[in-house]
Amino acid sequence: MLRKALNRSLLNSISNRVGGFKVSQPFSNLIFNKSISNLNFNNNYSFQLNRYSTESNSAAKLNTNLDDEIPPETNLALGEDPIEETEKVVGIADKHQFQAETQKLLHIVAESLYTEREVFIRELVSNASDAIEKARHMQLTNQQIMNDDVPFEIRIGTDEDKKTLIIQDTGVGMNKEELIRNLGRIGYSGSGDFIKKLGENPDKASIIGQFGVGFYSCFMVGHTIKVYSKSAAPGSTGYLWESDGSGSYTISEADGVSRGTKIVIHLKPNSYEYAKKATVETVIKKYSNFVGFPIVLNGTPVNTIRPLWTLSKSSITEEEHKQFYQFISKSYDTPTYRIHFSTDTPLSIRSLFYIPSQHVEKYGMGRMEPGVALFSRKVMIQQKAKGLLPEWMRFVRGVVDSEDIPLNLSREHLQDNGLIQRISAVLVKRILKHLQDESKRDPSRFETFMNEFGGFFKEGVITDFKWKDEISKLLRFESTAELPPTEDLKPRTTTTLEEYVSRMKPEQTHIYYITVPSKSVALTSPYYEPFKAKGIEVFMLYNTLDDFVFSNIGHFGDKKIVSVESKEAEEFLAANQEKQTDTLDQAEVSAFLQWVSDAVGNKIAMAKTTSRAISQPAIVVDHESATFRRMMKMMDPSKQHDIPKQQVEFNMNHPIILKLNQARQSNPTVAKLAAEQIVDNALITAGLYEDSREMVPRLNQLLEQVLNK
Ligand SMILES: Nc1ncnc2c1ncn2[C@@H]1O[C@H](COP(=O)(O)OP(=O)(O)OP(=O)(O)O)[C@@H](O)[C@H]1O
């Protein structure tokens, strides 16, 4: 319980030192790596008045001032090319009622399925990508498609004046029956059907749609939705599907419709922001940056970075990695390590992780948020996915894509928590393994990395029982051993538990550490002295956290990790020390111990002779850790934390003790003062003494006695 409470409190204190800091970077400096060649911009802005019957379409009436505006005759440059609604309806529109359940569901989708309205862009872009994927599949399977010289791409146009957003693709398109089947019924997914037909064909992994609801998300932001579509099958007719989402839709034939689908959203007043290029660009980059086809927004390519996690390692350049890392992490540094990992068993996972070169928590910027985004089929599901990696791995940046992840309808949540835990276990294991390899491959680089990120791993040891043993293999600490330089002759200051064990003396059963404020204190400590004499290496821990880390690790393999101040250390020394010849006889020793116990009764619980070969007169043993004491004080500063009585061992051959033994009879007043001081000195050495001010009157008394001699 106490350990748990301490760990919690310690972590809070760590978190206060660390925290969430975001660095934003303009995306504009990213270079489009995939050439978007042969962009087919349609600058022919012929516009005809809508001859389509609108008697039942109140929304369309409402919007006539927007629709009937004739766009100015323009000769637009490529980069400014907006998409316009240039198609014209021919003949009379058929009116269709949505299926009964669709009407109700449509309301739910538009009002409450999604927490963020912006995701309608993700849904429509995903549909566009699916449509193009299907057209590509037709081509690959030698089916003819109409206008096969038209490039596969998604074009998006915003118009702040008309308050419209247009999303157009050059994909498979829909004929009249498909429009009715796909857009007249919620829950029917033409894409889902397509996947089923593909069977085991690997192309199915590129299809995003599965639920048959995404399209209707555009009613969250649009009061009228027009869908112009022309099937890619040669000789197809163009159609306009139109609805205000209130219960019916109309379908009419339309002229001027290109292969694929163009969706024109007439925005509701509360959604006018989606007529702004900047807003739309941000949303595309957030969710849809990695769909498999170029997205061109108002004439400018947007998705300029390739989804590196889906590509083979050898096809990616260093520069591309750097750009990708900076894009996903919104930072400017160069990552120290990267882990590109894919597996198909037991689950299909594609992942790419980067370990940054620095972190901001050390500047007291607050706790960082998780840095790994969860994708499903290249579409972003959760940007800062919690649970994919443990909390302490929040410094890792990257992407995990798994088509096996069961999503809920809105794609905002994952349905199977157990599955995420399984994915997480695979990923953590892989990252730790990679870091272990790196630590062997280039130890000095790894040491630099650990100097920066070691705190996170220590947090992991304390909070993540499952991985503590694996993490402990990576940790490095200073030790009293003289470490050989690295292979490239760089000096080394820290060592691993594994290396320590390889240097252990044959008689040594435990791993020893000492918690001290500095190396010089460690080297002069009476606790270290007997270990030094026996040539036994001791880890030197300089901060509170490390003491916790070691006590949480507990064991490394079959070796117990103990403090040099512990009972185990005491027992080891007692069993492995040459017997010293005592100057005093047993009766005298007993009398002295009795006297000192009485003289310093308020501080001594038990007085013993020491078996440690120390050069100091007394030592406190088997006491509570000074670190734990400090933690307890931090947790409850209002309480007075008195030092409990201690077990004190005396070096009965030490000249001070021998003199004290004489003085206890010849000069009992001075002897008592000296005994008190000797015990206080031992408490100081153990790090237990709290305020040395209370010692000053006694020291003055002692000085007086010495000077009066
Ligand atoms: N741009 C498009 N081009 C061609 N067909 C489309 C297009 N948009 C939608 N469709 C068809 O309409 C169907 C329904 O689309 P909707 O977005 O509602 O669901 P979905 O994409 O199948 O699944 P999900 O809800 O998981 O996104 C699609 O499966 C597809 O057959």
UniProtKB/TrEMBL annotation:
| Localization, UniProt | Cytoplasm
Q: Which SUPFAM superfamilies match?
A: ATPase domain of HSP90 chaperone/DNA topoisomerase II/histidine kinase (SSF55874), HSP90 C-terminal domain (SSF110942), Ribosomal protein S5 domain 2-like (SSF54211)
Q: Which NCBIfam families match?
A: PRK05218.1
- One term under GO cellular component: cytoplasm
Organism listed in the record:
Heterostelium pallidum (strain ATCC 26659 / Pp 5 / PN500) (Cellular slime mold)
Q: Which HAMAP family match?
A: HSP90
Superkingdom of this entry's organism?
Answer: Eukaryota
Return the similarity comment. Belongs to the heat shock protein 90 family.
Primary localization class, coarse: cytoplasm
GO molecular-function terms, A-Z: ATP binding; ATP hydrolysis activity; ATP-dependent protein folding chaperone; unfolded protein binding
Report residues binding ATP: 123, 127, 169, 174, 182, 189-190, 210-215, 261, 411
What is the name attached to this protein's record? Heat shock protein Hsp90 family protein
